């Protein structure tokens, strides 16, 4: 399971490095063995380049030999390459390439973008983050033909049937397949070939996420669905309004537990009071 840590902010709006490292230690102590600094739950697109470097440095330092670190990179190609090389120089073994957000993305251009990043850091494992339902699996196979260090995929198109076809067109056995839409989609994606999933909920309740992972890996689908039912409302709140409150709900739960401030950056926004109370009640009901 791939944890996507939040990036906590101090009262003055800066990155709260002490709180960030405390949250990372909590994840590591809870048994988490893969961390993704600068993921979407970490507010990647709201951080400055300097802040993204700081988050990467703190994560690599805190993880040590206790966890693999999969550093999120992206934006324009020079920035993505510089971020990947920074991760390499710190000793991180892998980078995750965020879905390009340019409004005009061709399938061939997608290959070019990822190929340039992968070839800039041949020592690192590279994991594309795929959210584009129009991208065919054959394009990923093409990329892998050029770049043997493209080793895994975070697939985040909300369609398990499409995922099953995409994985088989790309090469089911060629990559590590990670369900990129977290616990709600993990059971269906595991049935189609995924062997891991990402999680933002893990920031709040590591044991709950690990329970689902263990159930899925052991083939105990009923047990996995019991966890699914347990986390359903929390994830519905995150997914509401086009996932507008995806990060906000996680930080609200952490604030209710006294672990960091609830602050998020625009274009995210704090929850209304009634939803804050509901999130706090859910978090309090988990065995944390």
From TrEMBL:
It comes from the Bacteria. It holds the Pfam family DHDPS. Pyruvate binds at residue 41. GO terms for molecular function: 4-hydroxy-tetrahydrodipicolinate synthase activity. Keywords: Lyase. The active site is at residues 129, 154. Belongs to the DapA family. This is Dihydrodipicolinate synthase family protein. It comes from Streptomyces alanosinicus.
């Amino acid at each position: 399971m791939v944890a996507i840590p939040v990036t906590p902010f101090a009262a003055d709006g800066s990155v709260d490095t002490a709180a960030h490292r405390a949250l990372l230690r909590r994840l590591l102590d809870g048994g988490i063995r893969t961390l993704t600094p600068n993921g979407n739950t970490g507010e990647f697109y709201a951080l400055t380049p300097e802040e993204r470097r700081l988050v990467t440095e703190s994560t690599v330092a805190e993880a040590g030999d206790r966890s693999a670190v999969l550093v999120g990179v992206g934006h324009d190609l020079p920035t993505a390459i510089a971020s990947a090389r920074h991760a390499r120089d710190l000793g991180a073994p892998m980078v995750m390439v965020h879905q390009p957000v340019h409004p005009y993305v061709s399938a061939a251009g997608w290959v070019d973008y990822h190929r340039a990043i992968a070839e800039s850091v041949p020592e690192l494992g590279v994991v594309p983050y795929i959210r584009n339902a129009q991208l065919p699996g054959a394009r990923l196979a093409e990329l892998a033909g050029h770049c043997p260090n493209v080793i895994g995929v975070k697939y985040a198109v909300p369609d398990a049937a499409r995922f099953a076809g995409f994985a088989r067109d790309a090469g089911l056995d060629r990559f590590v397949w990670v369900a990129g839409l977290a616990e709600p989609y993990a059971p269906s994606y595991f049935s189609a070939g995924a062997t891991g999933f990402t999680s933002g909920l893990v920031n709040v309740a590591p044991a709950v996420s690990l329970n689902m992972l263990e159930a899925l890996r052991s083939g105990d689908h009923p047990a996995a669905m019991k966890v699914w039912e347990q986390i359903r409302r929390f994830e519905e709140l995150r997914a509401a309004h086009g996932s507008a409150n995806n990060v906000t709900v996680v930080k609200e739960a952490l604030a209710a537990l006294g672990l960091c401030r609830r602050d998020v950056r625009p274009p995210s926004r704090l929850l209304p009071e009634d939803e804050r109370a509901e999130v706090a009640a859910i978090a309090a009901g988990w065995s944390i």
